Records
---
Amino acid sequence: MKALEVINVSKSYNGSKVLDNVTLSIDEGEIFGLLGPNGAGKTTLIEIVLGFRRRDSGTIKIFGREISSREFNKKIIGYVPQEHLLYDNLSGLDNLRYFAGLYGVKTSEFKKRLNKIINFLGIDENILKKDVSKLSGGQRRRVALATSLIHDPKIMIMDEPTTGLDPNVRREFWKLIMSLNEEGKTIILTTHYMEEADELCSRIAIIDNGKILSIGTPEELKKKYGGEESLILRIKTRYLDNAMELLSNYQPEKVSEDEIKLSGLNEEYIPKIRNLLENKGIWVDKFEVRKPSLDDVFINLTGRRLISE
Amino acid sequence: MKRIFYIAKYEMKMLFKTKEVLFWNIAFPIILMLLFTAIFGGGNTIVINVGIYDQDNTQISNTIIDIFNQTNVTNIVLIQNNETLYQKLSQHELDAYIIIPKGLGRNVTSGYQAILNIYIDNSDPNIADISKGIIKSIIDGFNNKTRGIYEKFIEGVGNFNKTMIEHMRAYAETLKPLFKPVKGTEKVEYKEFILTGIIGYGFLFSSMVTATASIVNERKEGTLKRLLLTPLKPIEILVGKTFSALFNTLIYTFLVLAIGIPLLQPKIHLNIPDLIIIVVLGSLSGIVIGLLISAIFRTTEGAQGFAIIIGIFLQWFIGIWFPLEMLPSYLRSLSNYIPMTYALNVVREILLYGDSIIMHIQETIYLTLFVIILYGIGGIILSRLLKTIEV
């Protein structure tokens, strides 16, 4: 069953197209990533799906049902926006109570769901008693996620869910997202972190300048657009020129003052290269096999890097 | 140094590109200056409404009425019978009334001093004092004229006997005013006036400004977006916001009374059920205006700023700080278009004079209609806005 279908959706602002004939479909139970730089159109697409913005043209279907420009099934979708969108002067618990009330969750049901969610998200009950304004970024994000889960939605849309979080918290958040998916929720997330998309998503749509450039699993994309594997050699700077000369048969590429890249080679070549250089008194500090990344995919698709941390 | 110059230059550029900032920084202080000049500046004439019930209907009584008519500080209402008098008094349409008793003309022409009973509406302490002063000075003027005649007569003729001189003296003090309070209008002190005025202040700030802020802050903080993600209908958001501001005003009102009564020890009639009804109506009038402001303005700063300024303006026109009669007539007529004026007036009538809301059914109906009509209009506008808003 398709959880979400976006068919030929376009949107312009002041004559410039921010979404250009976007088409994609997301299966139920997937973690689907929209990967693209800031300003690519990811948030606009999400906000159109949510009904916050009108689309100029195109069709959107949720679980097979076409939705109008300003409509979406609020009980089916949970949304985790970029900003935490909580009431700062209320406690986390009050925020949860408030939103549960707005979604029509009964008090007895709320208690059950609350316990489940705080256990699931690892939220300390004492944290929930504090005003949101006094919480750390990670804690706020968890509370915001909790408010989005309180009505038990089938689809979770997360807009840059880990932006601004430190790497450790981000990794914890990834675990949560995967657990949610294991619970049966379809996850749609936008991100500009390649690692995040690579780690989490079953399929990825690469979006740039309002256009979907390609859709596939991370492996498919890397295979198709990521280019070859390469071997990276780290050598002391004073030996770099000699090493380049000795490796000339492998078409070496100077990457930095102490790094040489040998495209198309993998770990099998390491002993041979090591012997070749050590025989001439050049010691390799480190060998690294670099596999194609989503960044390479993005470079090959757009001609530029996807800027990330 | 250069960086500071650039910051200053571009900050100013940005500042002056914002229309709201231009208004608040330049236009508003000027408007405020003009307004204060209009209210407190010289040249304003206070006109008091004086009812005259002429039971005498003689040349002398007509002369007295003419003298009152000739002044530009009294608006004379001729009363034909007791019923009209009581009706006008109950509706507080008269600041004072004078009964010219039957036989006054005969007394005067017979050379006796005539006592003029003047009844002052004490419900507004400031207006009562002003009315008293005005009426007294008019009567003094009348007496001075007659004293002039007497003195010329004494000088011109001379050699009067004692009895004749006494007669003429009495004639010189023809009218003796005897001020009495209108029955049922107890003397209201300023502390009572201001305590009730502060309740009216809540219609503007606890209701109107709060209502505006509740919508615009949600927009500013992005939580409106979060609200619109829930199954809430726009109309539910509006009603929820209305109730929040309404409760805020009711709590404010009771806090004012809870603090004001022991501190000021005013003489008031605590008719709580009727007070609640009128405070709810006054508050709803403010809230609906506040909600409309939040719908009209595009920026949160603009809406909130405008609501605050409207509140600051209106406080002078609804009778919070001073009686509306102290306003020039052209500004006083403006007050009649503000629903909160009526609400505050009824609050005063209930608390200060023990009136019931039934006695002010006209104002109550007016306020109810205002609230219903504006909520109808505002509800449509705001619902559309919330439905079509690109948050």
Note: Chain B touches chain A at residues 221-223, 225-232, 387-388, 390-391 (CB under 8 Å).
---
Amino acid sequence: MTGPARIVVRELDMAFGSYVVQQSVNFEVRSGEIFVVMGASGCGKSTLMRHMVGLEEPVGGEIRYDDESYWDVPEERRTVINRRFGILFQSGALWSSMTLAENVALPLSLYSGLSQAEIAEVVSFKLALVGLRGFEAFYPSELSGGMRKRAGLARAMALDPDILFFDEPSAGLDPVSSHRLDRLLLELRDSLGATIVMVTHELSSIFAVADTSVFLDAETRTAIAWGAPAELRDHCEHPAVRAFLSPG
Amino acid sequence: MTHPSSSGSRRLEIAPAGDGLRITVGGLWRFAEGLAGLAGVERELDAGTFPKVVVTAEGLEYADSSLPVWLAGLHDLCEARGVPLDLSGLGAGLAHLVALSRGVPERKGTEREIIRLPKLDKVGHRVIGRLRRADDQLQFVGELGLSVGRLLCGRARLRWRDVVEAIADSGPNSLMIVTVISALIGMILAFIGAMELRKFGAEIYVANLVGLAVVREMAAVMTGIVIAGKTGAAFAARIGTMQAQEEIDALTTLGVSCFDFLVLPRVIALTLMMPLLYLYSCAIGLGGGMLIATVSLGIPVEQYWAWMVWALPLYQFGVGFLKSAVFGALVAGVGCLRGLQCGRSAAAVGKATTSAVVTGILYIIIADSVFAILLEVYHL
């Protein structure tokens, strides 16, 4: 069940110097939906996410969160908007000098107002959600890549953000963990009403969880399709999109 | 009996009912109000026997994770008491979320024990640790020796481009900092020397003092310290990051010796560049001293130059030249060693870098002392 448009991306141009990554990208993400950014490797999916969360400034166009144009508001306001985001980076991006519990606890101790004992309880729950109960005292360097990624997910969810951004969440996960992650995304959407923007090219995940998706084309360097993945697979006029969604 | 919770606008009612202990949640569940406790449920479970615990939602306006966290705690409590928990009255989302959090059993035996050793054991562990580090260093020296041997036989696999890059980084790119440090050292020595020598009317000996101090000690040692802080640290950080990102593992599995590929180019570069930097530092330091002597003390340039040349036989430069080559090899070796010893995290890279600088400076001072003793023994 989805609501009004939570994120609107309009005529977005992204470039590094003179190299244009994507241009005139348009799409909307509705409140409470799981939105997937898909496309071939190197097409600019992660770059789009970095623009959406404020790590890169677009060269043109706008990104709106509810009624605010993200890149037009003062930096202090952007910081406040960022607190509504939970972000999972491609490599997990855990702070290596902290244990898993400390990684998840940091945003809670900064912004939640909970006591240390309460934070420990929430941390334990968040780690349990990603199947890492009992690993609180471990350092990131002591974990596998997949476990680090799951811990990064727990940290992204720490403050119950309105909008969750996941960059390749299933990459490096075993099939059981990957399926479990898909279930978690659906539960987060259904029980906490989270809006989820996910960058991925894992077809099984796309069809299992995505409500809507946008396809970034590496050749034309723009978004050439926007809609439900199954609809795009069956009815999209662009052969590149159909080939991506039904390979072989 | 009902226990209404009075904290904020969160509602939590616990009451025995015909089908078991009934818990009703409602209102606003937010982190801002803190987490709800389980004491009320525990009291009821202590007071009577219930076939199950049933949780339902009534007027639940909003819930963040504080509600599922509480439900997960309730799940654990009911499991410990052997009482079935029915969450179907909450809607599928919340019930599934709790089920998901309890789907993977807690990993046991992961607690970290703080082992308190007797003092003597601690000393023993430290000594063994130091010996192991010394062993690592000896092994490093041995491997480096073999690598140099392979280089001399033309069998070392290294990219000369890396040598050139390291030369550029440690040589031309270090000129500015070496210039500033050397000029200031020369000037300071001239000032201090003049202050003391003036008492005896022997200002002209400033030329001897600055000349000997700069050429024999300061130029080589100060350049070594600057390069340890700049280039040695960069070597450790670069190789440490490669270690953390498994790049060195990739080299090893490819059959390429990381000593040939990573260590040797850097050791060659610094061993070649340090003597040149030393000569440059000498020129700048002597120039700085001469500037102060002529401008501040009024000693004519020709006179200062003549005294300085008389006080500095050529072999003094040879000593400094040799010392700086040794310092270069030491700084490069320590930087690479610390990089190779680095762990696999960002924090470990930081530690490796710091250790490379500290150890590099320490080795420079020790080597300088050894040179001083040897030169004394051989009357140089």
Note: Residues 1-6 of chain B have pLDDT under 50 and may be disordered.
---
Amino acid sequence: MGLTFLSIQGLSVSYGGKADVLRDVSLDVQRGEVIGLIGPSGSGKSTILRTLVGLLKPRSGTVTLDGQVVDYTSRASLRGARDRFAIVFQQYNLFQNMTALRNVAIAPTLVKKRAKADVEAEARALLARVGLAEKVNAYPDELSGGQQQRVAIARALALKPDILLLDEVTAALDPELVGEVLDTIRALQRDGMTMLIVSHEMAFIREVASRVAFLDQGLIVETGPPAEVFDQPRSPRLKEFTSRILRH
Amino acid sequence: MGYDLIYSQVTGHVPYLLGGALLTLQLATISFLVGWAIGLFNASILHFGPHPARLAVQGYVTFFINTPLLVQIFFIFFVLPDAGILLSPYTAVAIGMSLNAGAYLTEIQRAGFQSLRREEMDAATAMGFSVPQMVWYVVMPHIAKTLYPPLSNQFIIQVMTTSIAAIFAVEELTGRAYNVNSLTFRSMEVFSIVAVIYVVLTLACSLALAVLGRWLFRVKARIV
Amino acid sequence: MTDRRALMTGGAAAAAAAAALLTPKDASARPLEDVLRSGEIRVGVNPTLPPRALFNERNEIDGFEPEVAAAIARKLGVRLTLQAVGSPERIPMVVSGRIDFVMGAMSRTSERAKVIDYTVPVHSENYGILAVQGRGHTSLQALNNTDVTLAQVRGTTAIPYIQRAIPNARVLLLDNYPDRNRAIAQGRAQASFDGIDSVRFALRPFRQVQWEVTATPDFGVTYSGLGVAKNNHSLRNWLNVALYELHTDGTIESLWEKWFDGPMFTKVPVSPFF
């Protein structure tokens, strides 16, 4: 492991004048690492991802990526942040009026002003990589949930992000469709993609994550390798959480 | 002493009336497109813009919805010249109708913004879309699709509204109907022909809009 | 998802309305005896053509035509009901029997007479040029030029004349005479060729402009009668007799002078034969 790739220091986020959703969260991520974010609902896991990608404004704290501080204060500087992070949402969030191909190709052409022909060739390759070569011209409402989520992953990859953020990407899927999406993520892990994964699929997190962070009430309570966190929880809250999860 | 319909005095004028129908269509299309652009811009401001800009848009909408179109065009046609702005009849009517349609289309499209899928907007934001890009690529197709019926209704309303142009020296269908009527006194014949032209015109327009909607936005409208 | 059904319904409704208009079942003009029996005569006047007819300060219809109509009603011994009509609907109103006869710029043309019957003339209609003073727009030749725009009122008798006699001038068709006058005052048009009978009255609000009115009597004078439904001979014959009396006893001329600030440009020749 080399230098710290992503460093989150003292990040606090609040919205609507309520108490902080994230409180003084710090997390270091090395290049190629896969971080599993676990914790009960409302613990702030998704908030971390949404803040990194600029959907929420941090109240305080700094995010440093590859030695550069990410500036979340202005729209212009946010562009920079969004170049580095790409997010995949629980509800896929595909553009309903666009084909799979266009969903994948639109941001690189529009936001990064790249040549349309190049981007489309890449987009086809990405869709093939997630096993949807046949579906390039399908619209979201013609695809299953699993297929839509794989298009969403291809769309995120098309931005060539440094870090891929996966926000409960299997939570909205029918159980029989979860496998295909998890396979796609496994393949990304093998390719060395740095990822932050929020998930309730504990077995999957244990399998792919290099480290796991446990959040509760906006705080990172414990971090460590999966085996440590799942098998030897130190804090009482994590103990309670794992025992509840493992009973299922 | 019933009235005998005699169309022969009028049939020679039908090509002239059809020429007016073309002008009607042109005026309706221009005012709809400009009004739609105004409406989209305004609705974007109402959704994304700062407070003073929102107030300005609301003022515009309130003013144009609560005054008659006739009065608005009268102002542009007859009052602006006293301020040194002399617009041609066609331009004055096109501007008046566009501004008026802009107010109604702001209201219609505001509803479209309110029904936006939050998730698609999040995705666009996260991918770095600018506000105009978001409006054009995400909001607009959504509006066009979900609001297709009221939008095409507004277009049909524009077609009907063009008849007001006759008052301001524009020789569209209704204006030409008046002209033929005063020449022949065959009111019933003239206006029944004009009614048929309007019906054909609006049915043709709604058919064209349905085809266009299916082609552009995958709006699955049933076509006749 | 265009609401095709609603549109079809709308179209059907429009067609039904048109059909209703075209087959006026109970629409028939009333012969003289029906008018007498009802004790009421219904007369259409056009209050957008002052001082032929206008709304006075008490918001009642007043003017030259209502006073002539009142004189007619007195002779007939019935109550007068005035109905305000505009140019497009005045003929259908008479044909369908909703009014018994119509006044208001009913100048006779052979084309119009195919649709409606006329009584003997009530007054003459005199044509001339209305322009801004000192620009030389004082003859039809001067107007017959592509640089000249004539402001005219849509649906008036002058238009076919202009197409025939001043074909090179451009024509701007407006809705009413005040708008026409305003258009000339604002420079949208240079002149107007139209009736000049009521021009003194109409130009009152435009005092800031120096107007020039040139009569063109050589162009021909038209006559306005009362418009009666086709073949309503009993009513038309009686009206002819009544008008003869109103002409010979000076009623019509004195009412004209009262409302138009001067005598008729061309006197109506009165004949005992109809």
Note: Residues 127-219 of chain C form a domain with the D-Maltodextrin-Binding Protein; domain 2 fold (CATH 3.40.190.10).
---
Amino acid sequence: MGRTQTVLFRVMVTFAVVMLSAPTLVVLGASVTSGNIIQFPPDGFSLRWYNAIVGEQTLREAFIRSVQVAIICVLVSLPAGTLAGIALARYRIRGEKLIQVYLLLPFTIPLIGSGIGLMLAFGQAGVLGSLWPIGIATATINLPFMIWAVSSSAASLDPDLELAAMSCGAGPVQTFFSVTLPAVTPGVITGSLLMFILSLNEFLVSLLLVDARIVTLPVQIYNSIRSIITPDLAAVSVVFIAVALSAIIVLDRLVGLEVFLKSK
Amino acid sequence: MDALEGVFAVAWPKGGGKLTPYLLLVPAISVVGLLVIGLVYIGDSSLRTLDRTTFLFSENYSLENYRRALSEGFTYTIIWRSLFGAFVVTIITLILAFPYAYMMVRTRSALVRKALLIALFLPFFIGQVVRAYGWLIILGNQGIINDALGLIGIEPLRLLFNYPAVIFGLVQYMLPFAVLMLAPALTAIPEEMEAAAGSLGADWFQTLLHVVLPMAKPGLIGSGIVVLTLTLTDFAMPAILGGGTQDFIANAIYDQFFRTSDQGFGSALTIILVATGSLVVGIALATFGAGTLALGKSENEVR
């Protein structure tokens, strides 16, 4: 890299890092203010807003609902995405191009379209008002992430290993559970973690599928920031930041974040 | 295990060779099928008009909602605002994402690489609402920037609820997507290529333009398409940072369903959005190819 390029790239990357981190840092800072409003320079340090949110039933319940939705999402997407990922990476499939295009529909259909469509479909089925349709909906719209995570893991498994297991007397079921599945486990974990986080954070589809009795946390925050911005919301947002940070640490320990830099 | 193998052998006499992949795909195909069912419902209700006196939807089909949507200036204002915004955001995001991905892939320091990855994943995992909330605190009329300006005696600036604020928020939202799609493509470029170009007398800009960028094309296309479509159809940033004055198509659709309660007209707008989005992606795919978007294995990996 030449000098000009180094300097130019460093400036741009620094700008990008500041831009990426600024909202997070500001929310963290705002959550520990001792004042009643968020201002700069900030008032003293206190954890009073964390105390306050523990007592707020609406926020606590909204958080629990979001976690439930995320768990349902993983329960649906894990089997569906794992099997599909293995199928796409390990087998020759007739009409594969078409199936790929079809399985990418959750990404190609605009989120608002998917959300409205699911809202109408679940409405017709009379199941709106419960949490599980939201879980299924978030699984549906993010499924390609799960398939992608598993298929990239499965593609790196040497097919000879499966043949070796077979020729040593393992049946197809045993081969699947002892050779194929362990090999794709890192992908399954990565994918599930992604699905959990994306579902926990999902805002638009949640907004379309909830009613006032079952708002999820992102919707609750959205409704609140449209009125007055108070520091208790910052404290709630820190919950999301903490979850995100733990997910990153788990992901880094399990597969290493660098896996996302690998070329296919 | 033997019992399982036995059950499997009975249920699937020939080891299931040919059918296995298709059966493995059934759950995923059914889950995505929900979206198809949803689209059918949208299509159906887009053809029914709302009777303003009874607030019932017509029994018979007509194209009235589409005719109305396409004859109103407001539709074009919003489509244009969304499309233009999506293009601007895509270009800015790619310009910022490229050096980011490049530095992340090429740096010799494992620490820098890790720090850049964490700076990328943290906002990606935090979600749009919390990030927009952070921007409200920073940019608001009583926000940090205006408070700081006030300290040095400058009148508060109106930094929120305008088009640039929405664009800015969207770029920040899209950057992690773009970098994560671009990085693998850059990893695939051997560093020797650049050294070779350099030793043949190319300066860094020529190397970038004639070697790195062309080789990074699949990644640039993949991330460009993702950023373009996600921006075109975004709801949260225009809603929160635009404050209702900078609606994109998704916001207009939402309003039709939840404010005006005209499900038919809202559905027609949704179909128009899906069509616009598909058209844009279709043009991009036809012009540039699928890039890194393809799922599963690449062509030559098939056994």
Note: Chain B has one domain: 74-290.
